[in-house]
What we know:
Elements: H1 3-11, E1 16-17, E2 20-21, H2 30-36, H3 43-57, E3 74-80, E4 83-89, H4 93-104, E5 108-110, E6 120-122, H5 135-152
Helix pairs in contact: 1-4, 3-4
Bound molecules: zinc ion.
Domain Zinc finger CGNR: 107-150
Pfam families: zf-CGNR
InterPro entries: ABATE, ABATE_dom_sf, Znf_CGNR
Amino acid sequence: MPDEALLLELLNSAPMVDGVPIDELRGSGAGDWLREHGIPGPPAAAREVRDAVAAVVRGQVPARSLQKFLVDVRQVPAISVDGVAWRVEGARFPARAVLAWAEVQARLRPCENHEECTLFLIDRSKANARRWCSMSTCGNRLKARRHQGRLHD
Ligand SMILES: [Zn+2]
């Protein structure tokens, strides 16, 4: 799985289900969830980076709060007749998630159905104007609610 997709799965591991917040990274299923996604444990470490990136994406804390996950990452130059090629070293899991965030941050945002949904989306469209994790769920629900609101005005 590409790191961006993995990051999205990680961010979306704390959904709301019928109005109840669920956390896949807590409880007995957490180890299985991490193994299925190829993320080394422990769950607490995965939760820490997930919650840190989520807070940045929601605009609650500045991006520099993610710096601590990158302390072991460095670029190493390898010189050849073609010039210098830079290789990233030390980007293991928490760092990989943060680097993936850096790649997609302009297209990664929370679903606009804030009241009922805690999911995130990566918008690949040219317009980059997608607002809902899923049109069929959150998009339709919000449209219906706004429509009802207008009727009662
Ligand atoms: Zn949603």
